[in-house]
Amino acid sequence: MVRPEPVLADSAGEIPPGARARLGVDPLTEAFAARRPTHWFAGPPQPVDPQATWSALVQHPRTTRAIAYVHVPFCVSHCLFCGFYRHSAPGGFSAPYTDAVIREIEGEAGRPAVAQGAIGAVYLGGGTPTALDADDLARLLKAVRACLPLAGDCEITVEARVHGFDPDKVDACLEAGANRFSVGVQTFDTAVRRRLGRRADRDTVIALLQSLQARDRAVVVCDLMYGLPGQTLDLWLQDVRTVLDLGLDGVDLYALSMFPNSGLARAVTGGHLPAPAPLGGQARLYAEGLALLDGAGWRHLTQAHWARTTRERNLYNQMSREQTPCLAFGAGAGGLLHGYRYTVEGDEATYRARVACGEKPLALVTPLPPDLPRRARLAASLESGRILPEVLEAVAGPGFVQRLAPVLEHWQAAGLITPDPGGPRLTPAGWFWQTNLIAALHDHLSAC
């Protein structure tokens, strides 16, 4: 039997090309040929003079809440799937690097853009923040709390790797004020973990998570990754069920991204690992995970994140998606302030040298589009899994929803959204293809 060719749209004149989904196919696996990024820039932004621009920016007080990001770019080992590896963790690196980051934070603490306006969430990311020594983790967290204007309910997250996150480091983080741990698990399956360069086995991973929960002093969430080489549907379901059985506060389900020239790409190309799941296979795995978590009553906060308990707020990630001002510290960190995006010097040795000279060691500062706030609201509105007419009208002006009606009707016909009195809801297929829908809304806004 010959399968009919998919139909792209009922009325090509009414549906912009970027919004057109295939009709008459499985919407979960075939609605689009590829996932679209959600960037809406018309072209690459032009860099400006970093130091002169920064000196002017930090003199203007913030009038809104912000987030803070502290980057620790060291890893004990290089996992095959990771595209963010920068520095190994040689002996003796911890104290000098921590000294430099604290000095950077202290040097910026009195600036109006830093000192004025509450900070709602702090994230220590990497790399592997827990590669730092216990004393240095504590010093860094205490400096953040002493120097930055944290809100009373500030979420303070430490990103952790299982290997090397011993009880002394856990307790040091808690005593210094951390109230949320995000543990990079990816998979509980020992064989898959070992193939990807993860050192801890299933029992060790579970034991760490249980020990964090037993302290009952911080929110505990973990990452799972779908589409990994050798990861079957049964293994994936076992991973998600393990999270359910543990009763963690939250979980992220992320699709594997195979970066060009990464260790994973070379291993697959060389025949040392099986190929990862194709896009359609990833879609099926995501939908199965979604069904398990939704069926267990977990709250679906964003495309990739679920919460079981009310104390899991996922504040940093949600505020970041809303393009909230971000104060960034540490080699390679990225931030956003007063309509500019900036990157801190990424070479660790150069970073430390520039901090020692009293600089804010910036590598790049670029202006953002003037309509960033409304586009951020547009994207953030879809993170809830709903297309809310009142938000679209507030962002794009009266009549936007009416002009968008043919697109919404098309998405409904394609199985991506379903009608709801408060505004269309994403179906499981719509959740998987969410970035395509957000990108299409940006296209439509640009055309108005």
UniProtKB/TrEMBL annotation:
Residue stretches making up the Radical SAM core domain: 60-296
GO cellular component, one term: cytoplasm
E.C. number(s) listed in UniProt: 1.3.99.22
Gene Ontology molecular-function annotations: 4 iron, 4 sulfur cluster binding; metal ion binding; oxidoreductase activity
Recorded superkingdom: Bacteria
Any one biological process term the GO annotation gives: porphyrin-containing compound biosynthetic process
Pfam families from the UniProt entry: Radical_SAM (PF04055)
Keyword terms: Iron, Iron-sulfur, Metal-binding, Oxidoreductase, S-adenosyl-L-methionine
Keyword Transferase applies: no
Cofactor(s) listed in the protein's UniProt record: [4Fe-4S] cluster
NCBIfam families: rSAM_HutW
Protein name: Oxygen-independent coproporphyrinogen-III oxidase, putative
Origin organism lineage: Bacteria, Pseudomonadati, Pseudomonadota, Alphaproteobacteria, Rhodospirillales
